[in-house]
Predict the 3D structure of the following.
Amino acid sequence: MSHPVAPGQTRAHTPYEGTDDAEYPRVVDERTRDKVLAAVLEHGPVSAAELGDLLGYTPAAVRRHLDALSRDGLIEVKGIGSPSPGAGRPARRYVLSQRGQTRLGNDYLHIAQAALGQLREVAGPDAVRQFAAGRFADMEERYRPIIESAGERLEDRAAALAEALSLDGFVGSTREIGRNAPNAAMLSVQLCQGHCPIQELAAEFPDFCEQETGVFARLLGVDVRRLSTLASGGHVCTTHIPIGRVARAAPEAAPNTDAVPPAPQTYATFVSNHQQGRP
């Protein structure tokens, strides 16, 4: 049995060189599965069809690998409803499980947990809080010029924050809520983080999540609210960022020919503040 060789590449230089013929299908499957897992991390929540388009695989091949990853406990299915009224069943989207998050990198986690636990025992909880504050102070300093260069619109600032988080391995993304919903009264952006390099550490020491939320609020200039965190068992870390409130026009009254007609105005925007929630 011979393995396929890419154009311009000899058999001796294939990535599977040295692999026994009997082992070849398994090795290919494992590498393809790793690609699917990495794509779920980067793009999740994501559907099987979207993964097929991203990776160039058939829907049947993608679902086979998704089923295997699900059996291994590395991914989970999340139902996401459509914002449109009267929509059907929630769409199936795939996200990493806590086990999948752990597999993709918590280097030196146990050392860090032991060190912080000893710090808390010797110096008290405030010492851990100060340590977390110092770590995120560095993030805030690095991110501030990036956010400020995005301009004044909260949507643009949130998108810049998501991009900065992605460069640090948090897989950030944003989604506007209420923009196209006919009955929405509030406009907001949801900032999502698909991966947390310190997830298990933050689960034991919530100060890390609290400090990060405070950094987001200061960088964006509004109070934000944490809706979910990976550390507390969520599929992703989600932060609610209020953009404003839509004030709908009052019902039209009978015309008054003596009155001066007001300037046309369909809506007004007011900043909506939310109490910061503990994850």
Summary: Residues 1-19, 264-279 have pLDDT under 50 and may be disordered. The beta strands are 75-80, 91-96, 172-177, 186-193, 225-228, 237-246, 269-270. The first helix runs from residue 24 to 43. The longest strand covers residues 237-246.
